[in-house]
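Propose amino acids for all 435 sites.
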């Protein structure tokens, strides 16, 4: 085995070579759709930021309950919110949900989720069709053969009439069986047949692309078409979207369907979406978490925001760097302070977002001992290095890389929070004053 480690005497010669490239998400190259409600327009694709969306789990017929959850999701950061439209009663409720949201000054666009009977609901309830800002159609659930083609066309005709974008959302669990069978028959005649999973991948991608062409044939603007091919396994999702992105320039909706609950769903979604987003694949994302008992629906939005922020694609909240703790940090002071600061920053962002432009990119460090504390604090905009086990009972505070003061006593948490507020006022308030 060759030893590639250079001798110390040769280390300097490395500077004569190429520098290590900085990792960054690849550029996205897709069409741009416009999802609007009134004067509020959410662009998806093209040069727009990767958008975050979510879906309610209320009974759509319950107007007030649904409107409240839409509001909660929107305030948490969801830029589009999808609701189930599965019955005549649900379709009739949609305009009233929209009305309630307008009264609350929540202008988030609503997306209607249609399966099986969407052609009837959209044509028989025009107020529903108008109140929605976008339609989601699953080509595997609109009927078979000529009947399916006709029903799909009916839905697209409504979208054209009201100038609504359409997401053609293919799911592996509801794949067009006729298409799958035809591909399997063709595969049987190949000299070297594909694996069954590869046939399924091809069926998903082809269903989406062929459905998009069918929508264009009806008259839908190609810029108003978005595609998704959702899977429930990480590697399958990555494989399908890599294939899809090579064969089309429509805006793409990413999401690991039926991701699961808690840590499992969070980690699986982050793993799949991060790989694709880093490769420049994906224009809008949804993290499909099964809520744990008592958990807010907004948790899926929080995870989606964190994925985008961790990749550096967008900034939503000031980031708090904190050490994990070890034998040097037997005190829980740094843990308590980290949570207090993180909760405080998140709770203030709805107000700060408009008042202090740029604050979402601020970096705060709350460290627990002398090992990495000073270094991390210097690299943050503002940081504090709390004393570890056996260290002097003092906490140096760093602002913009410089040590400015040292806190002591029983009110370090309160004093540091006040310092953070003063820093935000001074640095980001000046931006507002300048304009």
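Proposal:
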């Amino acid at each position: 085995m060759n030893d590639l480690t250079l001798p110390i005497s040769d280390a300097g010669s490395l500077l004569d070579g190429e520098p290590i490239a900085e990792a960054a998400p690849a550029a996205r190259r897709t069409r741009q759709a416009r999802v609007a409600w009134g004067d509020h327009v959410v662009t998806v694709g093209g040069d727009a930021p990767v958008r975050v969306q979510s879906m309610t789990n209320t009974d759509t017929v319950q107007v007030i309950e649904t409107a409240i959850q839409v509001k909660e999701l929107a305030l948490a950061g969801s830029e589009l919110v999808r609701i189930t439209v599965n019955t005549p009663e649900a379709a009739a409720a949609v305009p009233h949900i929209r009305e309630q949201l307008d009264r609350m000054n929540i202008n988030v666009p609503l997306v209607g989720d249609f399966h099986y009977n969407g052609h009837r609901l959209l044509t028989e309830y025009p107020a529903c069709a108008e109140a929605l800002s976008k339609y989601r159609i699953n080509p595997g659930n609109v009927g078979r053969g000529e009947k399916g083609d006709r029903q799909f066309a009916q839905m697209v005709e409504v979208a054209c009439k009201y100038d609504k974008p359409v997401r053609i959302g293919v799911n592996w669990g509801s794949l067009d069986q006729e298409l799958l069978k035809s591909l399997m028959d063709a595969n049987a005649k190949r000299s070297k047949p594909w694996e069954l999973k590869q046939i399924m991948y091809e069926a998903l991608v082809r269903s989406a692309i062929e459905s998009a062409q069918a929508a264009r044939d009806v008259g839908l603007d190609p810029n108003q078409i978005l595609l998704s091919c959702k899977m429930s396994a990480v590697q399958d999702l990555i494989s399908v979207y890599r294939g899809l992105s090579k064969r089309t320039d429509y805006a793409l909706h990413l999401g690991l369907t039926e991701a699961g609950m808690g840590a499992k769903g969070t980690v699986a979604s982050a793993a799949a979406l991060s790989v694709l987003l880093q490769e420049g694949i994906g224009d809008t994302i949804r993290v499909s978490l099964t809520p744990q008992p008592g958990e807010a629906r907004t948790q899926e939005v929080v995870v989606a925001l964190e994925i985008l922020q961790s990749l550096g694609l967008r900034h939503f909240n000031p980031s708090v760097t904190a050490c994990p703790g070890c034998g040097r940090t037997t005190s829980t002071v740094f843990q308590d302070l980290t949570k207090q600061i993180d909760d405080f920053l998140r709770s203030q962002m709805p107000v700060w977002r408009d008042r202090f432009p740029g604050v979402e990119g601020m970096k705060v460090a709350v460290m627990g001992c002398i090992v990495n504390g000073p270094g991390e604090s210097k690299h943050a905009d503002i940081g504090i290095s709390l004393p570890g086990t056996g260290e002097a009972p003092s906490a140096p505070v760093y602002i913009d890389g410089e040590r400015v003061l040292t806190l002591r006593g029983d009110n370090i948490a309160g004093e540091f929070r006040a310092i953070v507020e003063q820093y935000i006022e001074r640095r980001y308030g000046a931006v507002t004053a300048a304009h």
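The mean pLDDT is 93. The first strand starts at residue 32 and ends at 37.
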